[in-house]
Design goal:
The protein has 337 residues and is mainly α. Helix content is 53%, strand content 7%. The protein contains 13 helices and 5 strands. Strand 1, helix 1 and strand 2 form a beta-alpha-beta unit. The structure holds tryptophanyl-5'AMP.
């Protein structure tokens, strides 16, 4: 987030939870865009470990997942000298601002969040207060960095709206304090669907591993999973209403190859799903191959990863603390000497 340009560069921020092995959905819906956008914007990306404990995590596994997701952020090609890459819990301002913003957020607003409703059903034995106020922490993540743009998949849109509402409310009660962020949702890949039930989002928490491609799956596994993807009995590769399975594969293929739907339909005219799925699988394997290779290299150098995290947290804190101080002054806290 260094700012040497004469005009102020726009800022982007986004985060990913270390709550399992990220999927092709996370990659195409978010991570791939992060890398592209990081070339044109000041950027900060975090491993959202505080968010992940809203569902129970097994400590040793959790620690490993946090390290893996950090390595993944580098493996997708982010340059930690340019982008700020950090672990959320290493920057205390996130928790501090989240508490303050909790007091500017209404119970009713949070109760309407669809993700809260879904997750409380999925984890009925642990509907904790953190799960309820999750979007407030997310608002804090974004607002601390005065982010203009937040690249996410469609499932995060409602959370972004709340972050905007909270920012506007605070700015109105006091005076302009926060940049009001806009979501950045890619045209393609914003909602990659399950391979087994293409009416549902592809998710790392799906109990059926055949429903998702993990970014660390081997080529053999990727081929098997895509070959067993649910399609339909029309046997025609073209995008259309009610053709969720084929649409999903076309969208995945389009993201990996850059080809549009008309071109894909033309290329596969008269060919069956078998041939199409083989092409999709190959495109996914080739898309993920360099990510996987770089990931293995970074995981082999934990000292380097910790170093990146430490520097990232330092740079992140210097921006976040500035915003937090401003907020505390406006609210009327007595600041420490
Ligand atoms: P998370 O960890 O569930 O997912 C990380 C990113 O991946 C996107 N995504 C998908 N995109 C397309 N198709 C899918 N099937 C798919 N599954 C996931 C998500 O939209 C997301 O962009 N609450 C966030 C993490 C977060 C955050 C933030 C994001 C915490 N603080 C601040 C932005 C800004 C989450 O749970 O993402």
């Amino acid at each position: 987030m260094e700012n040497n340009a004469p005009e102020k560069r726009k800022r982007i921020l986004s985060c990913i939870q270390p709550s399992g092995i990220p999927t092709l959905g996370n990659y195409l819906g978010a991570l791939k865009n992060w890398k592209t956008l990081s070339e044109d914007f000041d950027s900060a990306f975090a491993v959202a470990d505080l968010h992940a404990i809203t569902v129970r995590q097994e400590p040793a596994k959790f620690r490993k997942q946090i390290t893996e997701v950090l390595a993944l952020l580098l493996a997708i090609g982010l340059d930690p000298e340019k982008s700020i890459v950090f672990i959320q819990s290493h920057v205390p301002a996130h928790s501090q601002l989240a508490w303050i913003l909790n007091c500017y957020t209404q119970f009713g607003e949070m109760s309407r969040m669809t993700q809260f409703k879904d997750k409380s059903k999925a984890h009925a034995d642990n509907v904790n207060v953190g799960l309820f106020s999750y979007p407030v922490l997310m608002a804090a993540d974004i607002l601390l960095y005065q982010a203009d743009l937040v690249p996410v998949g469609i499932d995060q849109k409602q959370h972004l709206e709340i972050a905007r509402d909270i920012a506007n409310r605070f700015n109105t009660i006091y005076s302009p304090t926060f940049t009001v962020p806009e979501p950045y949702i890619g045209k393609q890949g914003a909602k990659v669907m399950s391979l087994q039930d293409p009416t549902k989002k592809m998710s790392k928490s799906d109990p059926n591993p055949k429903s998702y491609v993990s970014v660390f799956d081997t080529p053999d596994v990727i081929v098997k999973k895509i070959k067993s993807a649910v399609t339909d009995c029309e046997g025609k590769v073209c995008y259309g209403e009610g053709r969720d399975g084929v649409n999903n594969l076309m969208s995945i293929y389009s993201c990996c190859t850059g080809l549009d739907y008309d071109r894909i339909a033309a290329d596969f005219e008269g060919k069956g799903y078998g041939e199409f799925k083989a092409a999709v699988a190959e495109a996914v394997v080739e898309e993920l191959r360099p990510v996987r290779e770089r990931f293995d290299r970074y995981m082999g150098d934990k000292a380097y990863l910790l170093d990146v995290a430490a520097k990232g947290a330092q740079r992140a804190s210097s921006i976040a603390d500035r915003t937090l101080n401003k907020v505390m002054k406006k609210v009327g806290f007595v600041l420490p000497k």
